[in-house]
Design goal:
The complex is a heterodimer. By secondary structure, chain A is an alpha/beta fold. Chain A has 14 helices and twelve strands. In chain A, helix 5 crosses helix 7. Helices cover 58% and strands 0% of the residues of chain B. The chains are: A alpha/beta, B mainly alpha.
Chain lengths: 410, 106
Amino acid sequence: MTATTYQPGEIQGLIKINASKCKGCDACKQFCPTHAINGASGAVHSIDEDKCLSCGQCLINCPFSAIEETHSALETVIKKLADKNTTVVGIIAPAVRVAIGEEFGLGTGELVTGKLYGAMNQAGFKIFDCNFAADLTIMEEGSEFIHRLHANAKGEENAGALPQFTSCCPGWVRYLETRYPALLPNLSTAKSPQQMAGTVAKTYGAKVYQMQPENIFTVSVMPCTSKKLEASRPEFNSAWQYHQEHGANTPSYQDIDAVLTTREMAQLLKMLDIDLANTPEYQGDSLFSEYTGAGTIFGTTGGVMEAALRTAHKVLTGTEMAKLEFEPVRGLKGVKSASVSLFDTELNQNVTVNVAVVHDMGNNIEPVLRDVMAGTSPYHFIEVMNCAGGCVNGGGQPIEGKGSSWLGNI
Amino acid sequence: MNKKKHLFAEDSFFLSRRKFMAVGAAFVAALAIPIGWFTSKLERRNEYIKARSQGLYKDDSLAKKRVSHANPAVEKYYKEFGGEPLGHTSHELLHTHFVDRTKLSS
């Protein structure tokens, strides 16, 4: 009996150091948010799986490309694409569209939504933009925040904890779950966009696609390695549960069947001889490719907060924000904060909402959490992303904006 | 006068030539990497973070709709299937619970 920080069925030890390539240079330790990397300088390093969040920051920053992923769904996805009885739904995260071009010789940060849709369509995917699910997330998480705010203002029982934390980032969620379980009530109960997308694709989507849910194979394309771990959480089979309750009788399936990183999607397209850089643009094939600007900025630090504020403003005051760009939450400062004063039509009074945005979690989150635990936090709503810069710099993204390690093998 | 004694032994150096070269290479790499590497690495990283973020802000500014509540597909989802935010179906499908992992053991 050994204690573990994993539930049965979850992917364990996703990120691994290849002992034959590791030079013991300690670079990875500088990027690990949880100090999960053991080994003296000069000696081969290893990762403590129980502390590891699977965020992959060590992997993308290792100068010797000595750090690898132990799980890849690439082969499975290619088989499913070839299977005529299966509808393969490709769920595209916001940060993928500004990075995957780099793997095909396009400029760093070039926006390639249409080309990516086109390339994935050629490969046989139905296009489901995760930005649509990000918009759904704002509807749910934003409503939840307003509910908590009002319930607390009115002094209701079971009002819900404030500050409310965002729950989109699986690295951050796992960090809280492994270290600060007392703060779990502060997390928004809204699923991450990836999990909402998978669930919707296999419930409402089954009607839209006119398919049996068990013949829908959901593949998310993520800038993130930790999303693989998230998708494997045993509770994330809610589409299956929903259909069981509505009379179906099938073996259990996950909401997300497979996760590919941005790098792996580039690899898949190359294996299928599809050159994304020269693919004609494609608009999508269903309502699931309709998204808003608020959904797309989820991929960068501050984006979830900015998107939530746009909708909260409308719900609370009844009017749209005069200027949608909300500069105080943009940029690379470790902890960004802002106060928003607005007239709350339900409470019929002016309210001030204090928000904070934290990224590069390992270096910035501790003081914020200490305040929350002491009950002295000035904030009502806090966005947290594990990776510096948010998902655009996730552990599944092209490395160094170019797609390979910078030193190669020594 | 004491007679000088000489001890002869096999080479007691514990590394093979090949291993010695590898350790040497690692040592040189470790010397080459520290502080300067880290700062320049962070600068380059921040550059591509900014470039990619700009790409997303561009996508936002180009979008026909820029607020989540105005997404017609989201509206359609709630109308035809999901009900309303925080409603019964939402709780079933779009919300979750979290796990105290300090208590897990196999």
